[in-house]
Amino acid sequence: MQTKRRRFLKLGLIGAIGLAAGGAVYRAVRGPAPLAPFALDGDASLVLGALIPALLAGMLPSEPAARGAAVAHTAERVKGAVRGLPLATQKEVQDLFGLLALAPARRFLAGVSGDWASATPAQVDEFLQSWRHHRLATLQTAYHALHDLVLGAWYSDPASWPAIGYPGPIKELA
């Protein structure tokens, strides 16, 4: 049986209306998703653990124990910074980390074939640069959010100021 163009379009339209109606009924019954404070757990923490060394390349200590401590400290500062944002923004950031934690998204959006724990800083940097210069503004915005969160957490820590020659706030203004 040959499908006619008109029949195909009608079925497509009926299907779209059915999906929209189903979504409307679901939202009416369930209500909007509740906003909850930011919580980064599971594989999403591995994403942040892979992003920090790539974004802070050259700034982290070279000694493995000190490097691990600096990455963990920066991750906690990132989490604290996100918790200071409005709940809707916290949800968006959590959704971004959750998306990157999913294996298909990690593979197709980030180009990282293995898990985040085994990703090299070069692989993560390649992913970040691809998002930084991507033609879609959404991915560019996601890159800038990740970049600003990590670097903001790093440079807001007074322990990182001596490495860049920043003496701290002027005493008269403090």
- The assembly state of the depicted protein chains is single chain
| Helical residue percent band | 55-70%
Largest sheet: none
The tally of strands reads: 0
Overall, the morphology is elongated
Instruction: Give the number of domains.
Output: 2
Return Rg in Å.
22 Å
Protein name: Tat (Twin-arginine translocation) pathway signal sequence
InterPro entries: TAT_signal (IPR006311)
Description:
This protein is mainly alpha-helical. It has 2 domains: 1-32; 43-161, no CATH class. The protein is 66% helix and 0% strand. The protein is built from 8 helices and no strands. The chain has helices at residues 5-30, 43-55, 64-83, 87-101, 103-108, 121-132, 137-155, 161-164. It is elongated and about 75 Å long. The model has no long low-confidence stretch (mean pLDDT 87). This is Tat (Twin-arginine translocation) pathway signal sequence.
Brief description of this entry?
This protein is an all-alpha fold and 174 residues long. It has 2 domains: 1-32; 43-161, no CATH class.
Based on the model shown, name its key terms:
mainly alpha, 2 domains, TAT_signal, Tat (Twin-arginine translocation) pathway signal sequence, 174 residues
